[in-house]
UniProtKB/TrEMBL annotation, chain A:
Transmembrane regions listed in the UniProt entry: none
Family matches, as InterPro entries: Beta-grasp_dom_sf, MOCS2A, Mopterin_synth/thiamin_S_b, ThiS/MoaD-like
Family annotation (Pfam families): ThiS (PF02597)
Keywords, sorted A to Z: Nucleotide-binding
Organism of provenance: Blastopirellula marina
Molecular-function GO terms, alphabetical: nucleotide binding
Any one Gene Ontology BP term: Mo-molybdopterin cofactor biosynthetic process
Family the entry assigns: Belongs to the MoaD family.
Domain of life: Bacteria
GO cellular component terms given for this protein: molybdopterin adenylyltransferase complex
Name by which UniProt lists this protein: Molybdopterin synthase sulfur carrier subunit
Automatic annotation (TrEMBL), chain B:
Reaction catalyzed: 2 [molybdopterin-synthase sulfur-carrier protein]-C-terminal-Gly-aminoethanethioate + cyclic pyranopterin phosphate + H2O = molybdopterin + 2 [molybdopterin-synthase sulfur-carrier protein]-C-terminal Gly-Gly + 2 H(+)
MF (Gene Ontology): molybdopterin synthase activity
Organism: Blastopirellula marina
Transferase in keyword set: yes
Keyword Transferase: yes
Pathway(s) this gene product operates in, as recorded in its UniProt entry: Cofactor biosynthesis; molybdopterin biosynthesis
Keywords from the UniProt entry: Molybdenum cofactor biosynthesis, Transferase
Family (UniProt): Belongs to the MoaE family.
The EC number(s) this enzyme carries: 2.8.1.12
Protein name as annotated: Molybdopterin synthase catalytic subunit
C-alpha cells in the first residue's frame, strides 16, 4: 500500500520536500513508517527518533496501525507560543 | 474562538470573545516575540503549522480546560508567518466567575499548547542565519545552533 507522510519545519528542510511517498506491505504501524522514512530519506535519520507522528490529526504511538486512507504526519518537537 | 491567523492578533477581539456577564475574571495572556535569546539577537520570527491538527488540538485543549475548571469561555489564537519583534505570536484568554480559576486555566492552556500544538518557530538571527526551534533536539550533522 502507498502511504504519504507529511513533513514540517526542519524535517521538511532536511528531506527537501514536504511529503514523502512510501510503498509498504500491510500491516503497517507507525514503527514501520518511521523505519521506512529513515531508509527513504537518510538525512532524516538523526532526528526521526525525536519526532512524534500523527494519524488523521491525532497523536499516534509506534504501535498505531495505519490504513491506506490515513493522513500521516511526522512532527519534529513543536515550538509554538 | 480558536484560530490560526496570518494577521496581527487583536487583543481586544480576543477579550471580547470570552467576555460574559457570568464572569468576574478574564485572564488574557499574550506571548510576544523576543529580541534576545541569551546574547543572540533575533531580527524576526516566523511560524508554520500543521494547520488542521493545530486547530483540532487547540479546540481539544479548550474543551479540556472547560471540563477541568469552572471556566465560562476560552479563546486561543496563534499567529503564523512572519511576526516582527515585540508583537504577539499567541494569545490565550479565559473567563471564569472567580479569578483563581481563570489564572490556572490560562497557565495550563499555554503550557499544553507549547507541548502539543503542532506549530514551529524559525529564528531569523541578526547575523543572517536562521534556525528552526525544536526543543530537546540535538543539532543534526551539518546544522548549527538548532535548539
Amino acid at each position: 500500500m502507498n502511504v504519504r507522510v507529511k513533513l514540517f519545519a526542519l524535517t521538511q528542510d532536511l528531506a527537501g520536500t514536504d511529503e514523502v511517498l512510501l510503498e509498504l506491505t500491510p500491516p503497517v504501524t507507525i514503527a514501520t513508517v518511521r523505519a521506512a522514512l529513515a531508509e527513504a530519506r537518510p538525512t532524516l535519520g538523526p532526528i526521526l527518533p525525536s519526532c512524534a507522528f500523527a494519524v488523521d490529526n491525532e497523536y499516534a504511538t509506534d504501535s498505531t496501525t495505519v490504513n491506506d486512507q490515513a493522513e500521516i504526519a511526522c512532527l519534529p518537537p513543536v515550538s509554538g507560543g | 474562538m480558536i484560530e490560526l491567523t496570518e494577521s496581527q492578533i487583536d487583543a481586544e477581539r480576543i477579550r471580547l470573545a470570552v467576555s460574559s456577564p457570568k464572569c468576574g475574571a478574564i485572564v488574557l495572556f499574550l506571548g510576544t516575540t523576543r529580541q534576545f535569546t541569551d546574547a543572540k539577537e533575533t531580527l524576526t520570527l516566523s511560524y508554520t503549522a500543521y494547520g488542521p491538527m493545530a486547530q483540532s488540538q487547540m479546540e481539544k485543549l479548550a474543551a479540556q480546560a472547560q471540563a477541568r475548571w469552572p471556566v465560562e469561555k476560552c479563546a486561543i489564537a496563534h499567529r503564523l508567518g512572519e511576526v516582527p519583534i515585540g508583537e504577539a505570536s499567541v494569545a490565550v484568554a479565559v473567563s471564569s466567575p472567580h479569578r483563581r480559576d481563570a489564572f490556572e486555566a490560562a497557565s495550563w492552556l499555554m503550557d499544553r499548547l507549547k507541548e502539543l500544538v503542532p506549530v514551529w518557530k524559525k529564528e531569523h538571527w541578526a547575523d543572517g542565519g536562521t534556525d528552526w526551534v525544536h526543543p530537546g533536539l540535538s543539532p543534526p550533522a551539518g546544522q548549527n545552533g538548532v535548539q
